[in-house]
Recover the amino acids of this structure.
């Protein structure tokens, strides 16, 4: 399959700001690894800790694995030149264009091994589900939002299901892996398993490679008249605000994406609609395990169908099934998820909602009034109570003494004051 790799594009509103934030994330990762290495050193000191030979061996394995993984990750991030950024930027500006804190260097790290190392069948199952909803007409340009380490799109290319790929992801490590794999470079990366099957499975340095040889024997159900050339462009950017012109896109794929973004699905669907041409196609694939189950926007499948309708789409095909998710051959744990795939067509124009902001405007616009919400009022009275408790601790008073003070000054009953104090101190120790 002739693949043409186009130069990478960066599509952040402020590129140096994105770089600074990822440099901070990289530094956090390095500190975390150094801390883990230090902890292993302390725990394996025979003068202070009694450890068995096998535990000693595990500590040695971990030390080697952590050091190699740190080097490998630094090498993968080198092309992004994160180290060269020194700039003084205001906190308000950083908050306005923040890379969400849930996205860090090791986010979705195991996806890399699932995509390019493990010989499990998850990638095959994903492709088969997508085939069931894929349009029968020819797809040329395909924008993949949250393309990760790039395997799903690669399999779509091998199966001639699209020819011109734009892969968008916010995480430079995943994008770098994707670039390398699409370019045919093979390299090694260390997996460290938290819950290994055996001691030898604690870590493994995998050789990452493309699956073309396996796939040559797999019959593609989608036929094409010619062996078309494939173009791929990697885009480093934030896909939530969709850095594309209005009514410009013809086919979009969101694999395992809509449930992990902080924006409400309804708003995102309307914005996506506004960037799509009339009759354009949106293919989705992934679970509905929305990040915060308590939020009103943790939509069910039925609500999603209604929202798609309200956001100007008509569902043309859909498919649901359980599949195994990120089951490492090294691991003693395994997760199953129900995934939903659909193909929807844009049938009505929507006005784009305003850009998604991680924070309300009164945080980033420092002269705007802070709204007095019931939540803030609650926090204020709770904090006042906690402050009273803390200020009454003087090294001599007992809980019974503080209960007395609280009944006198705060007009609380004896039993209410005792409950408040005991709850406060037990929470302190359970944190
Ligand atoms: C659950 S992973 C799925 C990755 C890939 N699609 C797959 O199926 O393996 C979510 C992906 O979305 C990316 N992502 C998260 N927020 C993003 C954003 N605002 N813009 C672009 N990509 C984002 C993550 O870096 C990650 O690659």
């Amino acid at each position: 399959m002739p693949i043409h790799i186009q130069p990478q594009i960066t599509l952040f509103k402020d590129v140096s700001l994105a770089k600074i934030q990822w440099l901070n994330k990289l530094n956090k990762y390095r500190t975390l690894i150094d801390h883990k290495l230090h902890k292993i050193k302390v725990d394996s000191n025979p003068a202070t800790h009694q450890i068995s030979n096998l535990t000693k061996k595990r500590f040695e394995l971990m030390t080697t694995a952590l050091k190699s993984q740190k080097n490998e990750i630094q090498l993968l991030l080198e092309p992004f030149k994160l180290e060269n950024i020194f700039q003084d930027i205001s906190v308000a500006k950083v908050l306005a264009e923040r890379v969400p804190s849930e996205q860090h260097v090791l986010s979705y790290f195991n996806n890399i091994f699932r995509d390019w190392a493990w010989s499990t069948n998850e990638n095959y199952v994903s492709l088969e589900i997508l085939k069931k909803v894929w349009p029968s007409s020819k797809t040329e340009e395909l924008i993949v939002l949250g393309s990760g380490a790039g395997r799903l799109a690669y399999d779509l290319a091998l199966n001639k299901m699209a020819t011109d790929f734009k892969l968008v992801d916010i995480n430079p490590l995943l994008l770098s892996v994707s670039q390398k794999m699409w370019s045919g470079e093979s390299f090694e990366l260390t997996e460290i398993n938290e819950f290994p099957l055996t001691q030898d499975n604690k870590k493994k340095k995998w050789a990452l490679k493309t699956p073309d040889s396996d796939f040559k024997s797999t019959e593609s159900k989608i036929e094409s008249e010619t062996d078309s050339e494939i173009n791929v462009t990697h885009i480093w950017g934030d896909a939530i605000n969709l850095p594309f012109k209005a009514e410009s896109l013809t086919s979009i794929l969101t694999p395992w994406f809509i449930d992990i973004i902080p924006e409400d699905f309804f708003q995102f669907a309307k914005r996506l609609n506004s960037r799509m041409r009339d009759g354009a196609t949106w293919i989705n694939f992934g679970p509905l395990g929305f990040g915060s189950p308590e939020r009103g926007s943790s939509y069910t499948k039925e609500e999603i169908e209604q929202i798609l309708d309200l956001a100007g789409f008509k569902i043309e095909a859909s498919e649901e099934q359980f599949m195994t998710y990120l089951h490492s051959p090294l691991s003693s744990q395994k997760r199953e998820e129900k995934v939903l795939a659909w193909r929807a067509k844009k049938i009505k124009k929507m006005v784009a909602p305003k850009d998604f902001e991680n924070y309300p405007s009164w945080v980033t616009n420092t002269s705007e009034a802070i709204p007095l919400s019931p939540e803030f009022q609650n926090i204020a009275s709770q904090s006042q109570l906690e402050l009273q408790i803390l200020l009454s601790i003087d090294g001599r008073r007992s809980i019974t003494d503080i209960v007395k003070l609280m009944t006198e000054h705060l007009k609380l009953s004896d039993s209410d004051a005792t409950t408040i104090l005991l709850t406060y101190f037990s929470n302190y120790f359970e944190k």
